[in-house]
Every structure is written in structure tokens, then in C-alpha cells.
Specification:
alpha+beta; 7 strands; 285 residues
Length: 285
């Protein structure tokens, strides 16, 4: 073999060795590339930042402002003896307390008076005080808003009595946060009754005061204006009693609302419509 032929053979051998050595390197690079992940072991996916478990928290429960008043006065003691003596002179001590499953949320009391003058006729009077307190509740809303809705319903009911004649309704100032006076005549078998109703709201409490009078057995009917004046005075007294029962706080100022204080009493689940006017045939002497 000539020297030139020998040199060409050596060059071919060197090229073969270089190529053979390059093959394992290529396989190794491919193996490293396929085995590398995104930073997790076992081929799992990496959890994105910000999506860690437990990051979702439960939404907070809705809250409402606590009701101003947590108590009611005793309905039969909401009016003074002097006032009762003026409105129901023959029945000032005849107060009959209404049934209530919770006196902190609902209360009522009624009185009747029959001044019998024999052949000269008789004067009849009937008085009823109802109180209803609403507590703040997340599902029903703030106590004063519930009371406002009930107050409006009471006013509508009192102004839409079947058979009422000469009906009048007007806002009444100086009695809680809002008040309405309703008056009308109602003819019954015993005579014509002069009905007076005042519905008042003071914070989360609604006061309904019904008062009526009639002249019986030929006696003349009482003066409606005088009855209205007595009714409005008595309603203001009951509103003040609500504030006094709660330590004198809240909306005790006539026609104004003040700061609210917390209350822990349960609210009434339902409310009743105003008491119907009484007549001598349905009341005791």
C-alpha cells in the first residue's frame, strides 16, 4: 500500500470514530430534555401562584344596625291615673291586659266606662292601647324600617273601616318620629260612636291608641274635637312611656329621632291589625 493510500485510510477511520462518539451525546441530550419538567417531581403540574388551597374564604354574614328599643312598658300602666280618669272616668281601674306570648315585643290594654244617668241617658267611652316592637334581623331588615312598614299599614287599616262616615286623616306632629290621627263616625245599634285613632311610630316601636265615645239612651253625642284632643294627648303619653321603659333613651323627643342603643330581645314574627272599636254590648260596665 502506497503512502498516499495509507493516509486516506487513516482519515476515514478518524471520521468514523468522531461520528460514533457524537451519537451517545445526542441521545443523552435528548434524554435530559425529555426528563426535565416544569419544576415538579413525578411529572405533576406546578400549582400556579395565587391559587393555593384555602385561598377562598366564606363570605361574611350580612349585618343590620341594632334596634333602638329593647323593651316595652306595661300596656296597662302606659297611661297615668289622671289621664285615665279623664278619658274613662267610670273605668279608670278596669284595665284589661291583652294576651301576649312575649310582653317585650307585644302588649295591649283596654278600658271601658259607662256613665249611666238614668232617664237622662248615658255616656260611653272605650279606650285601647296597643304596642308592637320590632327587632333588627338580617333577613327582615332594621327594626325601625320594619316598624315604619307596619305603621303605614296600621294607618291604612284605621282609615278604611267599613261603614265609617265623615272620615278625616291628618299627620300629627310632636308624637314620636311620625304619627297620624284618624277620626270618623260609626253608627251601631246602640248609637253613633265618635271614633278616634292615633298611630305613632317611635324608632322600632309602633303605638296604636283607639278611643271612642257615644251618647246612649237619648244622651247627646260627645264632641269629636274634644275626643280628638284627649286622644292625641294620651298617645304622646304612651310614646313617652316607651322611652322611659328604655331608660329615657331613643326618640323621646317629640317629632325627632335620636341615637340608637343595642337591643337583645327577639322580634315578633307577625303583627296583628288594630283592635276593633268596642261597643257597650261587647264590653263590661
Amino acid at each position: 500500500m502506497s503512502e498516499g493510500t495509507m493516509q486516506r485510510a487513516v482519515k476515514r477511520l478518524n471520521r468514523a470514530v468522531v461520528c460514533a462518539a457524537a451519537v451517545p451525546v445526542m441521545f443523552l441530550a435528548a434524554a435530559c430534555s425529555s426528563g426535565s419538567g416544569s419544576g415538579s417531581s413525578g411529572g405533576g403540574e406546578e400549582t400556579p401562584a395565587g391559587n393555593a388551597k384555602g385561598s377562598t374564604s366564606a363570605s361574611a354574614s350580612p349585618t343590620v344596625q341594632a334596634a333602638a328599643y329593647g323593651k316595652l312598658p306595661e300596656a296597662c300602666k302606659a297611661l297615668s291615673g289622671k289621664t285615665l280618669g279623664e278619658l274613662v272616668p267610670k273605668g279608670a281601674k278596669s284595665g284589661k291586659e291583652g294576651t301576649s306570648s312575649d310582653v317585650s315585643t307585644r302588649g295591649s290594654c283596654s278600658w271601658n266606662s259607662l256613665d249611666n244617668n238614668g232617664v237622662k241617658g248615658s255616656q260611653f267611652r272605650w279606650l285601647n292601647v296597643s304596642l308592637l316592637r320590632f327587632e333588627s334581623d338580617p333577613s327582615r331588615g332594621a327594626g325601625d324600617k320594619q316598624a315604619r312598614a307596619y305603621y303605614q299599614k296600621q294607618v291604612r287599616d284605621a282609615a278604611s273601616v267599613t261603614g265609617a262616615k265623615n272620615s278625616k286623616s291628618q299627620p300629627l306632629s310632636g308624637t314620636g318620629d311620625e304619627a297620624t290621627a284618624i277620626r270618623y263616625d260609626l253608627k251601631k245599634n246602640e248609637g253613633t260612636f265618635k271614633q278616634q285613632t292615633v298611630v305613632a311610630r317611635v324608632e322600632n316601636v309602633v303605638v296604636t291608641l283607639d278611643y271612642n265615645g257615644a251618647g246612649l239612651a237619648g244622651d247627646k253625642a260627645p264632641d269629636a274635637a274634644e275626643l280628638a284632643k284627649d286622644t292625641e294627648k294620651a298617645a304622646r303619653e304612651v310614646v313617652a312611656a316607651v322611652a322611659d321603659a328604655n331608660g329615657g333613651s331613643g326618640a323621646s323627643k317629640p317629632g325627632g329621632s335620636s341615637s340608637e342603643s343595642p337591643s337583645k330581645q327577639a322580634s315578633p314574627s307577625a303583627s296583628k291589625s288594630p283592635s276593633k272599636s268596642a261597643s257597650p254590648s261587647a264590653s263590661k260596665n
